Amino acid sequence: GNPHAVVLLDDDIDNFPLAEIGPLVENHRFFPKRINFEIANVIDRGHIKARIFERGAGETLSSGTGSSAICVAAKIRGLIDDDVEILVPGGTLKLSWSCDGDIFLEGPVTEVFSGMWLD
After folding, report:
1. How far apart are the first and last CA of the chain?
2. Cα separation of 115 and 107, whole Å?
3. How far apart are CA 114 and CA 101, in angstroms?
4. What predicted TM-score, i.e. pTM, was given to this entire model?
5. pLDDT tens-digit profile of 33-76?
6. E strands, 1-119, where?
7. CA distance 95 to 88
8. Distance between CA atoms of 111 and 119, rounded to whole angstroms?
9. 22-57 as b/e, with b when 16 or more CB fall inside 10 Å?
10. Long-range pairs for 60-66 at CB < 8 Å and ≥24 separation?
């Protein structure tokens, strides 16, 4: 699977040194295959602000699996309702999860890079 470590913070995540702490969490001995790391602020029962550090890539604008992990972590702790909007630097994602079955995700798709692989 795609492993995630989620930390729900009281302090504003805009001030969190994710570029410094992200690699330390990603490569911590607790995670021998490395891990994706998300930090988030629960704003209210329907809104979360988040930043995402993906293993091997660094901080990203958005992540479907990362946002899903945030949704599950907040829902299990009883902090959000079944439907939540997660505000990430790349836009707003709408997630729905009722603690059983699939997580439903809706959001914008934007191409941010294009390239050609030359052998």
Report:
1. 30
2. 24
3. 34
4. 0.90
5. 999 999 999 999 999 999 999 999 999 999 999 999 999 999 99
6. 4-8, 36-44, 47-54, 58-60, 83-88, 91-96, 104-106
7. 13
8. 24
9. beebbeeeeeeeebbbbbbbbeeeeebbbbbbbbee
10. 60/90, 61/88, 61/89, 61/90, 61/91, 61/112, 62/88, 62/89, 62/90, 62/91, 62/93, 62/107, 63/36, 63/38, 63/88, 64/93, 64/105, 64/107, 65/2, 65/4, 65/36, 66/4, 66/36, 66/38
As given in the structure block, the two tokens for residue 15 are 């001030």
Residue 119: both structure tokens together? 């052998």
* Cα–Cα distance measured from residue 20 to residue 23, given in angstroms and rounded to the nearest whole number: 6
72 C-beta neighbours (distance < 10 Å), count: 16
Distance CA 27, CA 55 (A): 8
